Every structure is written in C-alpha cells, then in structure tokens.
Amino acid sequence: MRTRLLRLLHYRVWLIDHCHITQTQQILLLAALVGALGGLTTVLLRAAMNGLHVLLTGQSGGLVDSFGAMTRDRRLLVPAVGGVVAGAVIHFGSRLGRSARTTDYMEAVALGRGSLSVRSSLVKITSATFSVASGASIGREGPLVQLSALAASLLGRFRNWPAPRRHILVACGAAAGVAAAYNAPIAGALFVSEIMLQSIAMETLGPLVVSSVLATQVMRWFSGSQQLYSIPAFHLASGWELALYAALGIICGLLAPLFMRLLRLSEAGFGLLRLPAYLRMGLGGLMVGAIAMYYPQVCGNGYSVIVSILNVDLVWQSLVMILALKILATSATFGSGAVGGVFTPTLFVGAGLGYLFGTAGAALAPRWTGTPGAYALAGMGMFIAAATRAPLTAILMVFEMTLDSNVIIPLMLGCVTAYYTASTIDSRSLYSHALARKAIDGMPRDFAAMPVSELMKAEAITVMTDSPFSAVARAFIANNIKYLYVLDTGDEFRGVVSLQDTKPFLNDPKLADVVLAIDIMRDSFPVLHPDSTIAEAIEAFGHHDGERLPVVTRQERRLLGRVAKADVMIAFAHRAAPAPAA
What we know:
This protein is mainly α. It folds into three domains: 2-223, Clc chloride channel (Orthogonal Bundle), CATH 1.10.3080; 241-272 and 298-438, Clc chloride channel, CATH 1.10.3080.10; 443-575, CBS-domain, CATH 3.10.580.10. It has 24 helices and five strands. Strands 1-2-3 form a three-stranded mixed β-sheet, covered by helices on one side. Strands 4-5 form a two-stranded antiparallel sheet. The longest helix has 35 residues, at 23-57. The chain is globular and about 80 Å long.
C-alpha cells in the first residue's frame, strides 16, 4: 500500500514538474467538461420532453402540428391537465424541504454563489417538462439551461471547489445550455457575459466560449449541424432601406417594455387569486387551451410559426390575430407561474412585428423595401435586444441561427437603436427585475442585517449652500459624479445639486454669476443612516438612478460619508457565499 501511494505521489510530482498546468488551464479543462455535460443533458432532456409530449397528445410532431391534428376538446384539456400536473410538482415538491442554495441559475451566476439546490432544481425541471410537453406558451430553453447549470454546480460541489470557481462553472453550464438550445456557441457565451456577468473580460469569456463550443458540438453529433432557421437569402433592396430598419428598431424599443410590463401585470394578477400552484397553473393552461381550440399556433415556443413567418408563408391578416393571441397565451403561461423560458416567445413577438412592418413598408414604398421575411428576421434580434438589454448577444444569436452574414449590417443598426429606445423608457430588462428581487429575498439574514457603515467611505464631494455656481461647476468637472452634496455651515446635509439641473445656466454667464448652490438644490433626496442595513441599501438603490447614496446621522443629519452601489453588490457576492467545508 505504501509503495502504491509513493508511486502515485511520484506520478503527481512528475506531472507537476513536466506539465505545469496553470489555474487558467485547469479552469478551461473544467469548462470543456461542463460544456460536454451541458450538451449531453440537453439531448437527454429534449428526448424526455418529446416522449412526454407523445404520451400526452398522442402525436409525434411539433407542438403546433400536434395540436392542429387534435380535436378541439383535447386542445382545451391537454394544456390544462399539463398545467395542473406541473403545478402539483411545484406544490408538493416544495414540501420535501427547502435548501439554503438557490434554484435560479441566473441568481447563482449574477450574485456569485455558485451552488444550485439539486432537489429544488429537479422539481423545477420536472414541472417545466410537463408545461412544455403539454403545449404551454413558453420556451424550453429555461429547463435546458437549468439542467446544464445544475450539472456544472454538482461538478464544483463534488470536489468542494471554492466559491469563485463554482461561480465560473455554473456560468459555463448556463452558457452551454443556451448554446445547445439554439445551436449558437458564440451567442451562448455572450448571453452569460452580457446579461448575467455584465462583463466581457477574457478571464470569464474564455471558459464560457470553451463550454459553449463543446456543448454545441455534442448537440450536433446527435441532431446535425444545420442552422436553427432555414430562410431565403437576405438582401437589402437599397442603401436607403437602412432607415427603415432603424425605424423598426425604434418600434421594437417602444413595444418591448410594454410586453415586459404585460408579463409582470399578468404575474401580479394571478398572484391576487391566492390559489395553490396546481390550480393557478392549471388555470393558465386552461386559458392557453381555450385559445388553442381555434388557433393552435399559440402553443409551445412558436418555432414552427417563426419558420413560416421568415419564409413568408402567412398573410398579414392572419398574423395580426396570431400575434395578439400568442402574447395573451404567453402572458397567461408566465403569469400563472409555469417554469420555462420566455426568450423564444420573445423572438416570436419580434418576428411578428418585423413581418407586419415589412408588409406595410412594401405597400407604401415597394422600391425601398425588401421582403417581409427579412424584416421579421431583423425584428427578432431587435426585440430581444430591447427586452434583454443585450444587443451584442441579439446580433450574434440571429446570425448564428440563420448563418446569413448579409443580415449583420441592418441588424446591428436596428438592435442598437432598439436598445437605446427601450432604455429611455424603462431601465429594467427581461431578467433584471427577477435578479433585483432575488438579491434582497435570497440573501442570508446575517448579511442582510449588516449596517452600511461597514461599507461607507468617509470622503464625499460637497459644496456649501452659499457656494457660487462656479464652485458647483468646478466640482462636477473634477469628479465623475451625477449628484453633488450640499451642506450648511454646521455640516448638516441639506440636499443635492444634480448635474442635469445645471444645464439652464450653462449658456448664460451673467445668470450663473448670481446663482448659488442653494438656488438649484434638490431638498428631497434618499439618504442612508449608519445603522441602515444592507437590505435597506439595496432597496434604496432600486429606486434611485445614481451610483452612490449619502450616509447621514439620524438626528442632526450630519454627513458622514457615502455608500456606493458597486461596493454593496461586491460585498454581497463575496460574503453571501458560505465558506467551503474543510
């Protein structure tokens, strides 16, 4: 036995001496393994969904074709029954016991915990499988990514790796799931980088790319290497047509926040019913079934209908009704609490809007306008860019799903236009609302109760109430801030001067000479106190567009310092994760 141990130790020393595997190389090797696991789990879960779909519907085709072949009474009942079963899985699965670990892969990645609850994740995946197989108007990418991220989390926990490495592994699992779901390795990596990590640093992007590539290759071994959507060749009718794509971007940017608001309103409406999960999700399924009795095109994630839209196989009059009912069915499914993804239904809405816009353009300016299918393709990316606030991911995903490079130029213009338009209407994205809520609800109690004084920095940029406008201007020029704190002679906090409020005085030097800080000061401004908790700070930042908040005493309102939003979230990411066991 001793000889064997010595031999193993000798081999290990030899490997260390000759291979010199760095930490970065170890992470890349792990990322490759996670990618392969992600592709394999995606294949298995898709097979399970297809088998359950055959069992529930008696049909083996796509969801829209299957529902179209069924009688109307079965179209009504199958989504309702599937919703009841999916809700029962959630209802009774939650009674098996709660875990301190999250089930939300986005939370695990964005907040840096790096561990997913196995039991609760399997409950969610099982529930989503019933919802998707029974025709719920929701995407299957949600459970696919969840299972891939869970496999990555288990790999990290098996070897008891530290939280930062588990964090990267779960991110790689999520990227692998997205890449395998859409046959889009570049977009899979950027989806996690741009939406969850909000960083495209090579330290994180490299492992994500490796995982995405391996997951996509595994999927292609089983299902082929064809692009997700086969469409006619894309082309611009003229250079002037770019103006129309910019206009479509503006429209998508205006409507995407309304679509997201409708989803949240539906969720709130179902919540008011106070029904158990199986009745609530059964009601959502019943609503989808009622629509599917006459329009089976609303079932599933809408893939087959998107193919018809891109290939101009629908008349615009029919599409108007289908699009409206698809939005209604998606709202009912999402609001009822069904587990799944809304990414693909969002692609459906974008394709429908683009098709209708292209049809109108062809009628009004036929010489300038290409086919409606071209606008539908661009609309998919624009609506995703506006909804997720991830234009780079949207551009590359549409390209990878079609493999048509001619779409890049109008798509880039439209996605950026849609992004900025949507950002001016609503700062929240398709995923930020849930992450913000998880940031507060999911934090450990001891961390939530920590006072902000532990994160406070004493230095703060201030002016006095009687400071002239020139002093205010110099303070803004010398410091990258949006708000300037105003104090009186007793160091009492009186308010702030906003950078935006200085605009009226910038073109009138005479007026600026007589204006004091108190004249343009905002009296009402959110503040924190030394004993304010981290939970209160996160809540305050959720209603404030600035990056810092002042910390003042409760009685005298004496300014003590300021707390930065970044410091709060970084502290949360590092201190919320429990230390690994020895």
